[in-house]
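Comment thread on ticket #2218

A.B. wrote:
> Attaching the input chain for the structure job we discussed in standup.
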Amino acid sequence: MWLEESYNGKAIVFEGFARSRDLAIGGTFLASNYLLPVGFPLNLEMRINDNEVLLARGEIVHSISEGDKHEPGMGIMLTEVDAENRERLLRFFVSARIQEFYGTRFLIEFPHLEAKLSLQDVALVINLWEDKEGRLTTLHRGDGGKARGSARRDEAAAAEKRKPKR
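C.D. wrote:
> Ran it. Output below, let me know if you need it in another format.
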């Protein structure tokens, strides 16, 4: 993760390394003892397998400090992902349900397509189709999906306030 730009009127140059936990289509959790403020933007470079790196921009939407019952770190909402990285992300998520569909329906109905459409190809299409909220569609807009991102940030902040205090 890195940032090299102006933030709140100050020049910021930042680079750090953290383990990504619970990578999801709309964000991830970065395990870290060093916590950045909620709302802080980040550029992310995440290795998602041996051969592929996901590049995206995100924003910190919540943090867990050391001493809580959970591992310390920061929840990151993806705010900008270009088309190539969005495709990489959608292909990466192959749920058990998609695997079952591919093996028990798709290949049985269309065995001649196995060489042309891999499990990851089918996952790409299903994941995009099932994105009913349009989370992924807004991530590539010129405004970085901020119109919808602002609503998600507000929802995340409200959910954080509703959490019981420990």
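A.B. wrote:
> Thanks. Noting for the ticket: Residues 2-162 form one domain.
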